[in-house]
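ARCHIVE CARD
Drawer: 12
Card no.: 0347
Subject: one protein chain, sequence and derived structure
Cross-reference: see card 0346
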Amino acid sequence: MRRIVVMLFLLAVWASATSTPSAPSAQAKPAVNNTPMPGSAGTAPSGATSAPASSNQTTGQTNPQFLQAADEVLATMSKLIDLPIKEPLKKSLRSKDQIRAFVVEEDKEDKDEAQKYADDKTMEAFGLIPRDYPLESVMEDILTDQIAGLYDPKGKEFYIADWIPVDEQKEVMSHELTHALEDQSFGIDPWIKAARPNDDAELARDSVSEGSAMAAMLDYELQGENLTVRQLPDVSTLIEQGAAGEMDKDPKLSKAPIYIRDSLIFPYIAGVTFTQQFLKAHDGWQDLHLVFEHPPVSSQQIMQPDKYLQNVQPVPVKLPDWKTVAPAEWKLLDENVIGEFGIEEILKQFLGADAAKLTSPGWAGDRYAVFEDSKTKTLPIVFVLDMDNLDDAARFFGQYSSALEMKYPTRTNLSRQPNFYQFQTDGGGVFVKLQGAQCLVVEEASRDTFDKIDQAIVWPVATPQASPTGQAGQPGFVESVTASLARNAMLAAIH
């Protein structure tokens, strides 16, 4: 599915929270990402050095005050996160139209039209966005209204929106210039894209990038308070509430599907939580290089940082050879990994947040395929998922079956057994099978097709043991004023 990465609201909440700073008393959110594997090698940068930094832009506006402020913030961030300034950085002020043109062009370069079509249809198939939802135009409108600044890793240039108040520009700078420093040391864009074609792993890397920039921005704001992000407790709940509140104020985002809203803020909120836990488990920013040398491999390692710190790897899941089991009219659109974040979002869409948060942490691995039927234009799904243990698998089987009932309100011929569930819809049959700690889901297919897929699946011979207590285990760097949400909520928690 398409990795939606935008720093939307995190500045509005941040600005309001920092308007009257007082003695810090609260918390910062734990990070959810892949922490460095034990014994990982690498040399931390020895001291941040400052280098000449400014260079005028022919396509953007500059002024002496802006350039001086950017140079000062860059030097400060270099010292705070212990990364050197290796080369001068171009920077400029951009109009709303100029930033939108850049983002639209980047989106075109990132994926071609066939890939975007497949991504959109995959989200539709899982019920995460309505059929034929105009995602691209909606996102362009949101970005046009909300972008506050961005760092372009290709042009090695930092832009900031020319309508951002001067007193808020340094907050945006501290975040974006962290991206610039990380890019000079680690090559951020190719590092994130190296996770492809695994969408879930790419989301994890993006969360490292955005989360570390959020944590660095927090340390920037805490200067003079004798406090750092490593010393703060968890403020993730406050950040999420602030971000949700700001999104509800936006006329476009307030109407956006839940998955779109959550995808926009996940890299920032979950990412800053992960970063905080990583920094606490290590010697602070001087060990940041470890996470780039040994990146997280799943959204689960972002959502559950201990999984990263303990090097808990996802279970590899293999799907059948489609030539032997899929009907001739099925065209494969997408085959990928949805991850813990994706599972939580599907369950949240149909069953609510509480049920989603209870079930999704038991994820151990998955792989899905989405097809388009050339005759009926339906979107069949084949989805194989591994859970941590028998209890988690049984819970997922029950919860996902309930979600499918909500997804297909009109159904007939319903049949429910302890480890098998099926019903018919206008688009075809829906089937869920539980075997050991693994589940198979097939949607909008005939029973004959399901049987072929079932027989082609390599089911585990031995199954994991149930948990002792009998209980289940528990997607350019664009900063828009959604990034404000997290920023402001984070500072609100501190002050």
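Annotation on reverse: Residues 322-456 form a domain with the Protein Transport Mog1p; Chain A fold (CATH 3.40.1000). Residues 54 and 89 are 6 Å apart (CA to CA).
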